[in-house]
Amino acid sequence: MWPQPNNQSGFWPSANNQSGGSWPNSDNQPGGAWPGQSGPNPPWQPGPQPANSGPGPGPGPSAPGVPATQQFSPTMPFSQTLRDGCYNNMMITIRGTVKSNANKFTVDLSAGRDIAFHFNSRFNDCGKKVMVRNSLLSNKWGGEEREQQHFPFAQGQSFEMKILCKEDEFRVAVNGSHQLAFRHRYRDLRSIKGLGIYGDVTLSEVKVENVP
User: Fold this and answer.
1) Which contacts (CB < 8 Å, 24+ apart) does range 47-55 have?
2) What is the pTM of this model?
């Protein structure tokens, strides 16, 4: 059994949203440890990388071969470039507040005109609250994915959303709970350089970092 995360930055929560639930380390190998816990493998948390402040990405020092952290101005609508594209163990953290009269908001990861990962959180979809996931490739939408254990966002309340890129999928956690995984349909991860956030939220922080 893996220990339950404590909702601090850099923690990846339980996959089944239950205390003591199983979720492996960042390499999906047994024997890992949560950050701050003892274990045979190094803790799963962002490394000591300097952030770049300002309205957009800027150059910053990093270890050879390790992308530097990018921190963006949290303006809406949000549209910025991921300097290094997407890659294994890249994590996007989005903190903000849902508007009290929110209908929906969207997070897009795009490559040119293609949308590799479209995350659309809807507060009234035929009377239901649902997180819709999809991709737009060659001007054609794929099949929607709607499965969810619960809807983690609430109108008028703050949230923390994390998107972790792995070799085969994007993983999404909200407020310390793992929500879903979206298998890559667009395979050239490094070409996914567009990050857009639109709709009925205000932002307080958006950052991108490498998770060792």
Assistant:
1) 47/210, 47/211, 47/212, 49/209, 49/210, 51/207
2) 0.73
